[in-house]
Amino acid sequence: MLTELATEILIPAAAAVGIGFAAVQWLLVSRVRLSPERAGAAGGGKNGRDDYLPIEEEEGLNDHNLVLKCAEIQSAISEGATSFLFTEYQYVGIFMVAFAVLIFLFLGSVEGFSTKTQPCTYSKDKYCKPALANAIFSTVSFLLGAITSVVSGFLGMKIATYANARTTLEARKGVGKAFITAFRSGAVMGFLLAANGLLVLYIAINLFKLYYGDDWEGLFESITGYGLGGSSMALFGRVGGGIYTKAADVGADLVGKVERNIPEDDPRNPAVIADNVGDNVGDIAGMGSDLFGSYAESSCAALVVASISSFGVDHDLTAMLYPLLISSVGIIVCLITTLFATDLFEIKSVKEIEPALKRQLIISTALMTVGIALVSWLALPYKFTIFNFGAQKKVTNWQLFFCVAIGLWAGLVIGFVTEYFTSNAYSPVQDVADSCRTGAATNVIFGLALGYKSVIIPIFAIAVSIFVSFSLAAMYGIAVAALGMLSTIATGLAIDAYGPISDNAGGIAEMAGMSHRIRERTDALDAAGNTTAAIGKVLYKVGGGSVHGSIDGKGFAIGSAALVSLALFGAFVSRAQISTVDVLTPKVFIGLIVGAMLPYWFSAMTMKSVGSAALKMVEEVRRQFNSIPGLIEGTAKPDYATCVKISTDASIKEMIPPGALNSFRGPCRLSSLRSADCYLCIQHGGAWDNAKKYIEAGASEHARSLGPKGSDPHKAAVIGDTIGDPLKDTSGPSLNILIKLMAVESLVFAPFFAAHGGLLFKIF
């Protein structure tokens, strides 16, 4: 029912709406001024800055020194984050160019760099474009994906550092004002990434089509480089940013909290600026690149399978672009959902923050289900066929709707299970906190046990999603199920970015010397964001932190990673014309066990990297406390720049070996089943993090019996948190990318493997 013209208008129009909405949100955030003469300026509207505020909420509105301090701290954080990313991108740029050359050489060599047309793989009576063309266009799409991934991460970082101090200043007027500022800032990143990813992919398809014409098999095969580029850059962003943020975090906590008994984000701590910079380069820039990679790969996997199904054979453009239509509807759905948080409901108290964020996930999922049904009905023929290991499987549009919907709802289920195991509102994390009574050892034991237990339900949820979607629509069903899980990515990213922005806001409040009441408000924002953050980390992978990290982008990312990896593997075997895989064959079995080993090797490298960088940070922080007279008394200023430099240098140096490991691949497909490892890492870290926050908050009699800050149980909880930090923010998220990356590399290089597969075995 949806014409080709309507499809070609709808997709870019949805992307334009997303970019426009992001611009509007940014303008609203920019009305909060970082200059004394404009502090507390009018804003107007229900949630603006004109509203009547009780006197007790107007804390420090006329204190110009506070505004200047906030602006100064924000500038330092922004400069540190920008400097790190520019340094990182110089190294990443070298890799990008080198890998692009490899793609061209490997794919071009398939037919000896011939410029002659060749029989199509699946339609032998037709002729397709030469292998050299595939090499050129795959290289171009790789560069497009890589650049878009880098831009997504960088824009996210700039938005977050722009908004952190503004959130702090708004907290003087009440928690509701600060919430809206932080959430709108997160929405800017979410909508920019979703819209840009969709728009660049759509433009690339249309430009490539000018050359490929009716050769859709070659067209969409070359587009797979887009996903490879996105994930390749995301791996470096996640590893480098994760090492940076955790080195600073561990150094600040171990010396500041445990040894010196000073509060978190205390300006006397030399590592405090580096810690806040790390939130932006790891949790913002890294996550942005990561989720862009997931989106690009799931779209590419679906397009490749569709191109050799009836959609591609019959040149049905509307049905062919079904994955992009889902993403387009997702942007509109997320826009409507965002209004519920920023305009339709006003936050009046701390206890309303977390329900408001959870409501975002539930509303977006419910509305997206309706949107998927409409797209499936309007864009797809009632009956069609999907390529299924050499055969064509008959499928109906309602079956494809169920595939997308089950991925969407499975993600939500995984996210809320993650919340149960990582939120300090429930017994699992409270038990971990209680174990701190007897020291750090029992805390670590309880946390490990909780992490192992937490993977059970999510793995079954993923398994059910795979079984149902494959039964209904073969590998294409799995690909669109992954896309369904990522269809509300704009909302998921908004929530995910909201957490680090609020965390930075709390740090700025502490460093600027604002009242304890302001810090309580920013801590409440951070805690709620971290809870909702973990759902996302499992929904867009599988896990996260508490109320500090229970529902964010990590969960969505891991869950979708399992589905995306399997979908990419399906596209790979389809392209390589593999109908069966005999695991009893020695070569295949070797590939399986090597693939199973890679996540452990990679985790060992990233964990050791964080440990090495943290060691240098701890030594520097200790040195400053011991050698700078008056530092602990607050009469002297620490040397923040040295700590920032240590984190930057260490993370750049240490990210190279894990990043280079991605080139060690081959027929190692079992690695796509290692999502449990990612989930496990994140759950460990999230539970320990929230156990610490549970004790610090002292919100219940049980929590107060374990505190206060500085008590032996609290110190044990801090040690557990520092152990979990590299698990949940470095190894776990990076493993997610590694898993997808090995799968998409196999797909991109499928023609080369088909022509020259088993080179190692041939050599030896």
From TrEMBL:
<feature type="transmembrane region" description="Helical">
    <location>
        <begin position="320"/>
        <end position="341"/>
    </location>
</feature>
<dbReference type="GO" id="GO:0004427">
    <property type="term" value="F:inorganic diphosphate phosphatase activity"/>
</dbReference>
<feature type="transmembrane region" description="Helical">
    <location>
        <begin position="130"/>
        <end position="157"/>
    </location>
</feature>
<keyword id="KW-1133">Transmembrane helix</keyword>
<dbReference type="GO" id="GO:0012505">
    <property type="term" value="C:endomembrane system"/>
</dbReference>
<feature type="transmembrane region" description="Helical">
    <location>
        <begin position="556"/>
        <end position="578"/>
    </location>
</feature>
<feature type="transmembrane region" description="Helical">
    <location>
        <begin position="178"/>
        <end position="205"/>
    </location>
</feature>
<keyword id="KW-1278">Translocase</keyword>
<keyword id="KW-0813">Transport</keyword>
<dbReference type="Pfam" id="PF03030">
    <property type="entry name" value="H_PPase"/>
</dbReference>
<keyword id="KW-0460">Magnesium</keyword>
<feature type="transmembrane region" description="Helical">
    <location>
        <begin position="6"/>
        <end position="29"/>
    </location>
</feature>
<keyword id="KW-0812">Transmembrane</keyword>
<feature type="transmembrane region" description="Helical">
    <location>
        <begin position="399"/>
        <end position="422"/>
    </location>
</feature>
<dbReference type="GO" id="GO:0009678">
    <property type="term" value="F:diphosphate hydrolysis-driven proton transmembrane transporter activity"/>
</dbReference>
<feature type="transmembrane region" description="Helical">
    <location>
        <begin position="443"/>
        <end position="468"/>
    </location>
</feature>
<dbReference type="InterPro" id="IPR004131">
    <property type="entry name" value="PPase-energised_H-pump"/>
</dbReference>
<keyword id="KW-0472">Membrane</keyword>
<dbReference type="GO" id="GO:0016020">
    <property type="term" value="C:membrane"/>
</dbReference>
<feature type="transmembrane region" description="Helical">
    <location>
        <begin position="584"/>
        <end position="602"/>
    </location>
</feature>
<feature type="transmembrane region" description="Helical">
    <location>
        <begin position="91"/>
        <end position="110"/>
    </location>
</feature>
<keyword id="KW-0406">Ion transport</keyword>
<protein>
    <recommendedName>
        <fullName>H(+)-exporting diphosphatase</fullName>
        <ecNumber>7.1.3.1</ecNumber>
    </recommendedName>
</protein>
<feature type="transmembrane region" description="Helical">
    <location>
        <begin position="474"/>
        <end position="495"/>
    </location>
</feature>
<feature type="transmembrane region" description="Helical">
    <location>
        <begin position="361"/>
        <end position="379"/>
    </location>
</feature>
